Amino acid sequence: MNAFASRLSRVQPSAIKTLNELAREMRARGESPVDLSIGEPDFDTPDNVKQAAIDAIRRGETKYTEIHGSAELRDAIRAKFRRDHGIDYTREEITVAGGAKLIMFNAMMATLDPGDEVVIPAPYWTTYPDVVRIAEGVPVFVPCPQEHGFKLRADELDAAITPRTKWLLLNSPSNPTGSTYSRDDLTALGEVLLAREGVRVLSDDIYEHLVYDGCAFATMAQAVPALADRTLTLNGVSKGYAMTGWRLGYAGAAADLIDAMGNVQQQSSTHASSITQAAALAALTGPQEILEERRVLFQARRDLMVSALNAIEGISCFRPDGSFFAYPSCAGLMGRRSANGRSIESDQDFAAHVLETEGVAVVPGTAFGLSPHFRVSFAVSTELLEEGCARIARACAALG
Ligand SMILES: Cc1ncc(COP(=O)(O)O)c(C=O)c1O
Fold it and tell me: In terms of DSSP bridges, do strands 360-361 and 34-35 run parallel, antiparallel, or are they unpaired?
């Protein structure tokens, strides 16, 4: 007897989770691995946000709220979209859920029928194809190599769309590459979508606040207003405000889509925690200086990491314009042998070699759909970053 639903057989085990577990086991053995696989800021949630949650508990804001979040929070989100991107949403066009991931899940469950296609530029955040598969859709991957800055081009998007295409999932700045679509890039993609009826676009803006070198953040509904009624503008407080554990994401979209997503949410989590909603309200309406302070720190770490990795023979690291990830190529190391005679034939072999010989956790590019690469996070202290890069250099030098 097969005890579990067949839809689960289509979901990949998370390579990142496996790596985290390996690193934890090493720590338990008394070793000190450097974990560059992590996907959350190493900073703390701002104090005003924590205080707002404590105040909400004391005021008794501990009961059910509206499915899509309190009116006050949704109005703060509307103000944020208007202020930062010039997009006007009504209250009925806003949803809030326990994480941006859950919003994506609600959107796919609400819109995909079995066999419907979703265009996903590769490399991609590992969650995208799995959520599409759970919703019984079919991910259609478009490889976007380093030579193209890891970005999807208009002609490639056009070629990937079929009569079954329901969505394009776009993430900028990107996890795992850090590449960032300019307003012009988005306009070119948006024009393709405008010509193809019935295709929606999910604009995953979760790393919005982490853009470097004066690069201006842009989002699809702002770049191509004519596409706004087919765009789900997805964001959240996890990355910008260092609130990953609080679980809160939000989005703007046409009211009928928001309504359909609400039907999914109503029968699952109901709504995001009332305490977290109060915290998110403080994050979005309180002082914003911390975003710039942290952005500057992340940029310095990115510079350190990119130059340290590019100094290693066999590695070529594209300079990310955003997020806290880089996605170096390890193509130059393929076929080399480690001291124990094992040949490095894939990015998985490379990640295993770096972990086993030097105790550094990086995520093999196989997990993100473009090889041979590996993802490194610079959401760690400068000291750990220096130590991690020095260890990767030693691991590479040890390859014959
Ligand atoms: C591209 C991308 N989108 C969304 C999320 C999820 O954010 P949340 O914590 O709000 O679910 C992540 C988290 O890793 C991410 O990398």
Answer: parallel
**What are the helix (H) ranges across 195-340?**
220-223, 255-266, 274-285, 289-310
Mean pLDDT of the chain: 95
Residue 119, both tokens: 């265009």
**pTM given for the model:** 0.96
Q: Is the pLDDT of residue 18 over 80?
A: no
Assess whether the C-beta atom of 236 lies below 6 angstroms from ligand 1. Answer: yes
Q: Looking at the predicted structure, is the pLDDT value of residue 395 above 90?
A: yes
24 pLDDT more than 90: no
Pick left, alpha or beta for residue 206 (phi over 0 → left; psi -120 to 50 → alpha; otherwise beta). Answer: alpha
User: Helix, strand, or coil here: 155?
Assistant: helix
Amino acid at 58: R
Is the alpha carbon torsion for 129, 322, 144, 111 positive or negative?
A: positive
In the 8-state DSSP scheme, what is residue 132?
A: H
Of the pLDDT bands very low, low, confident and very high (cuts 50, 70, 90), residue 8 is: confident
Q: How confident is the model at residue 13 (pLDDT cuts 50, 70, 90)?
A: confident
Q: Report whether residue 99 contacts ligand 1, using a CB cutoff of 6 Å.
A: yes
DSSP-derived pairing of the beta strands 200-204 and 231-236 = parallel
* Burial (0-12, 13-18, 19+ Cβ within 10 Å), 115: exposed
Locus of tokens 């070119």: 188
- Express as a percent the part of the chain with pLDDT over 70: 98
CB 262 near ligand 1, within 6 Å? no
Q: How far is CA 248 from CA 240, 242, 370, in A?
A: 12, 11, 29
Span from the CA of 235 to the centroid of ligand 1 (angstroms): 9
Which residue's entry shows tokens 């999910």? 202
210 touches 240 (CB < 8 A): yes
171 C-beta closer than 6 A to ligand 1: yes
pLDDT-based confidence at residue 1 (cuts at 50, 70, 90): low
The count of residues in the chain is: 400
Residue found under tokens 């990015």? 347
